[in-house]
Amino acid sequence: MSKVGIIMGSDSDIPVMKDATEMLDELQISYEVTISSAHRTPDDTADWAREARDRGVEVIIAGAGASAALPGVGAAYTELPVIGVPLKAWAFDGMDALLSIAQMPPGVPVATVGVNGAKNGALMAARIMAASDEGLRDHLREYGEKQASVVRQKNARLQENGMGEY
Ligand code: RP5
């Protein structure tokens, strides 16, 4: 069965990476979640990425903070699409991770979402998988409609009450 493979560098990444698992749950997409570090457990990380396709992984979401090598290292060991999620660690408001993940050398691509953008990471994984999955396209369409109706409700409230209550 096809699934998303989520990998993160540390358990300190879980509070943000939960946004990805919640989004995948909502879209009814299967996933596996692993902690492995590009720097602290490099061999485990390489094995995880090399074997991902055989486990049924179609798209990888890799979250890491600081000098965030994890998405790039993952992409070096597999041809699966890798979406990097730069996480805010203790310095630079996540800019360190953002630049590490976005500035991959030509030939080894990693798609990068915004800092702490785990939810968009999940939605991007879903869109990639939906290219060959009509049921998933329907789920994504429903999600988009739900999101639009929330914005319309907010606007209706604004038109009715003005900006006083905000
Ligand atoms: C990165 O270093 C992890 O992805 C995490 O964001 C950051 C800090 O890790 P811990 O020191 O909290 O384990 O590799």
Sum this structure up briefly.
The protein is α/β, with parallel strands linked by helices.
Spatial extent as radius of gyration:
17 Å
Sketch the major β-sheet.
5 strands, parallel
State the strand order across the main sheet. Answer: 2-1-3-4-5
Q: State the separation between the terminal residues, measured CA to CA.
A: 46 Å
Bound molecules: 5-O-phosphono-beta-D-ribofuranose
Give a description of the structure.
By secondary structure, the protein is an alpha/beta fold. The chain folds into 2 domains: 3-132, Rossmann fold (3-Layer(aba) Sandwich), CATH 3.40.50.1970; 134-166. It is 48% helix and 17% strand. The chain contains 6 helices and 5 strands, in the order βαβαβαβαβαα. It has a 5-stranded parallel sheet with strand order 2-1-3-4-5, sandwiched between helices. β1, α1 and β2 (31-35) form a beta-alpha-beta unit. The radius of gyration is 17 Å and the shape is globular. Bound molecules: 5-O-phosphono-beta-D-ribofuranose. 5-O-phosphono-beta-D-ribofuranose (RP5) binds at residues 8-10, 12-13, 37, 64-66, 87, 89.
